[in-house]
Amino acid sequence: MATHSQLSPTIRFLLPLLILQCITTTLAQAPAPAPAGPTNITKILEKAGQFTTLIRLFGMTQVGNQINTQLNNSNQGMTVFAPTDNAFSGLKAGTLNSLSDQQKVELLQFHVVPNFLSTSQFQTISNPLRTQAGDSASNKFPLNITTSGNQVNVTTGVVDATVANTIYTDGTLAVYQVDKVLLPMSLFGPQSPAPAPEPVKKKKSGSDDETPATDDGSASADASGAVSFGAHLHGLIVGSIEAIAFIGMFYL
Ligand SMILES: *[C@@H]1O[C@H](CO)[C@@H](O)[C@H](O)[C@H]1NC(C)=O
Ligand SMILES: *[C@@H]1O[C@H](CO)[C@@H](O)[C@H](O)[C@H]1NC(C)=O
Ligand SMILES: *[C@@H]1O[C@H](CO)[C@@H](O)[C@H](O)[C@H]1NC(C)=O
Ligand SMILES: *[C@@H]1O[C@H](CO)[C@@H](O)[C@H](O)[C@H]1NC(C)=O
């Protein structure tokens, strides 16, 4: 078999190359694997582009980490309304700087809903939505969704934003691009403390209906921030001690 013995060296040489090529092609064409480990909101926003301000604020306020942790630990899922860099540059100059650290946390948490919402759920949702910022009463942190056909708007009572795009959805986390920063009533509404820190001592008697109330509002916001941070630390410490005690039970 002359032909056979002539071909076989060629085949012997080519076959490994062919197999190697098959493997590399298959690897290259394989669908992107599910992201290893827990979902990372920062990574999602980085990939989408045009969210550098939001990423920075999520980092500064730790709200990004809260989202990641909560996603990993709850089965409700989450929804994030993500304002673009353009949305942030559309704010009046000094808007972010007028906020205390605690108010920045609230502003960011106001963009996060602690359950997964698909676009079709927007059609039937009951207003106001409760966000991570808490109390959705009408002068606190109400967030309303209005729809008309496929158009979805988010209304805070201060701004009306439009949902422009779904950036990410996996059935647990949904991230929607919005064209405006969602400014909450309690920080930017008519009676909010942030924009106009007016001196209180105009009249000594009567009329302590309005101004003191707003003062209390800002004071308690800061105080509760400190308290909740303390409580969080305490929780961590107690949690760690319990975990050690728990592990100890098995070894003693
Ligand atoms: C999330 O992604 C960002 C950017 O890619 C990275 O810096 C950060 O360490 C990640 N966080 C976690 C918890 O993996
Ligand atoms: C995610 O949850 C798992 C199981 O509850 C836990 O073991 C893991 O440490 C968590 N990871 C993060 C980054 O929180
Ligand atoms: C959404 O907002 C846009 C622009 O503000 C407005 O023209 C439109 O009527 C709103 N749609 C709904 C359903 O609220
Ligand atoms: C939000 O919806 C609630 C309930 O329908 C309504 O009472 C409230 O006025 C709405 N607020 C805004 C700002 O649209």
From TrEMBL:
This is FAS1 domain-containing protein. Residues 38-182 form the FAS1 domain. One of its GO terms (cellular component) is side of membrane. Pfam families: Fasciclin (PF02469). It is a lipid-anchor; GPI-anchor. GO terms for biological process: plant-type secondary cell wall biogenesis. May be a cell surface adhesion protein. It is found in: Cell membrane.
